[in-house]
Design goal:
about 280 residues, Alpha-Beta Plaits, four-stranded antiparallel beta sheet, about 65% helix, about 10% strand, elongated
């Protein structure tokens, strides 16, 4: 039970960090330049330019709440408490940033540099949310509705809706901003995948050793992981050995390699990288 609460607190801490990073990328870099790379923030940037009654920071919470209501109507409880939390937090922080750090112009005169910062921060923040099985709402909900009623894959539906928003910036702002927005959309797609793979990367160890008890004790007590033990015999020498198979994160992998060098320098070790492990101690199905 304690482990479950620890995982919940960790997820909400990561979601809070992810949303905060996304807001920084959107408010300080995307909105001042008119970059619209899709999502609710992109739509708010366009609508904020077309009228002077509501600012983008005010439009974001209104549209997010509207999308959440639509999600509950068409998708039911599948929208989830995490998406509600992230969506409302994103709206609140966007409004707060507008009040505390009012901006009337871009931070620099380098639009490409600001586009890269805006895309990088939002991609990193989104990756943290997806890692926690959450999202910031918005067009993610639209994509899920399209999938439910048209059988279009979520990724394609999301790319379609974001592409339409990004392309519309050509007509609302100008060709240069529109091209920057479309360019940023495709960068975000590749960058998000790369960040997600980096965050979720784990290591798989296959260890052939003559000192299985020492290695097993280290894995169980120090790393607090488990392992699978297989009795093996060398094809050439005929010597009996034990093969241990275990999984761990990157930090634990570095420590395990140091331990093996000290305890059994002759151990034969195969280390592979994996981006998804489903099971106890890692991610639930």
């Amino acid at each position: 039970m304690k482990g479950k609460w620890r995982e919940i607190l960790r997820d909400f801490a990561l979601m809070t960090l992810g949303v905060t990073v996304m807001v920084c990328g959107v408010y300080f870099f995307k909105i001042p330049n008119g970059f619209s790379v899709g999502g609710i923030t992109g739509l708010a940037t366009i609508l904020g330019h077309l009228q002077s009654v509501l600012t983008p920071g005010q439009l974001i919470p209104i549209m997010n709440i509207g999308m959440l209501l639509i999600g509950f109507i068409f998708l039911g409880k599948s929208t989830g408490i995490k998406t509600v939390y992230c969506s409302l937090l994103f709206s609140f922080l966007s409004w707060g940033a507008e009040k505390v750090f009012p901006l009337s112009a871009p931070l620099t005169n380098q639009p490409l540099l600001e586009l890269l910062y805006g895309i990088g921060l939002t991609a990193f923040g989104s990756a943290l949310l997806f890692y926690c099985c959450a999202s910031s709402g918005g067009t993610d909900i639209t994509a899920l509705i399209l999938k439910k009623y048209t059988h279009i894959e979520v990724g394609k539906a999301l790319l379609l809706s974001d592409f339409l928003i990004a392309a519309s910036s050509i007509f609302v702002f100008d060709l240069t901003i529109g091209m920057f927005s479309l360019f940023g959309l495709f960068i975000k797609a590749f960058l998000l995948d790369g960040v997600m793979e980096s965050i979720t990367e784990c290591k798989s160890f296959l260890i052939v050793t003559t000192k299985p008890e020492e290695v097993k004790k280290y894995i169980l007590t120090v790393m607090e992981r488990s392992a699978t033990c297989v009795e093996a015999k060398g094809a050439y020498t005929g010597e009996k050995k034990t093969m241990l198979i275990t999984l761990c994160n990157r930090i634990e992998a570095s420590r395990l390699k140091q331990f093996l060098r000290k305890v059994d320098p002759d151990a034969f070790t195969i280390i592979t990288s994996t981006n998804e492990i489903v099971g106890r101690g890692f991610r639930e199905v």
